[in-house]
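Hi P.,

Sorry for the delay on this. The queue was packed all week, but I finally got your sequence through. Input first:
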Amino acid sequence: MRVPEAEFTSYYGRPILKAPVWKWDIAAYLFTGGLAAGSSLLAAGGQLTRRPVLRRAGRVTALGAVSASAVFLIRDLGRPERFHHMFRVAKLTSPMSVGTWILTAFGPAAGLAAMAETAGWLPRHGLLGVVGRALPPAGHAAGLVAAATAPALATYTGVLLADTAVPSWHEAYPELPVIFAGSALASGAGVGLLAAPPAQAGPARRMAVAGAALELYGAHRVETRLGLLSEPYRSGRPGRLLRVGRLLTVAGVAGALLGRRSRAVGAVSGAALLGASVATRFGIFYGGVASARDPRYTVVPQRERVNGRRSVVDPATD
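Then the structure:
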């Protein structure tokens, strides 16, 4: 006779940890926020190096992506009228509150920068002519403001996930901002490679290399450093998504570097980097959800921490 293996359950058949109620739209929000941040950095690079195609593509994409982020975020609230409640406080210890104000600073700056791209379509005389002459310098300043805010926009969602009780998110707090920063850079680079001819795509290629290095490093860490809590990132749907993201990232960077004279190869590489960013964000999201649903990922690490603390207690003072 043998005692059966322990099953990690809670009282009354309820789960030990309540799984996140977030759905796919929050994973999409993670992607679009990073895309907005990376695109604004791409636009600033194009602006400072006088590459108008990169500047225009980055500004327009940043505005579209941050608008989509706002839609996903408000939709997840269930009652969209609650969104304005987020502006009633500014709490530095709350990643959600900080993120709301980051979006508030980034959104108008990205909008004004994108509007500046329409200056050439306006009449040269009259009131619209005055507006047309004022938009380029205003867009220049707004683009730099958006780029200055972009690093915070790209990484705060990683801090937001790590600040929860979800085991595989919480334990990966050093890596999630790194992964999200790299994913943002890679997606912005993808926009540049899709939009710009090879002669103007130099900054996008450099962004692709930097973003891929950060993303691959962070993803490797969460798949290997967390012990048992790395398991959700290696198995099931999260594992498949992260593997696809890794393959697309490598393919995108290789194409960007080896096919630097081909517009078609650059476009395929850009699409691969965008797809990699989507797969990575969704893989991280679903990996955390999976760890919250299985009690083993909550109970076993807790027991290990308790046993570790007991092992270092001095018996004389116990």
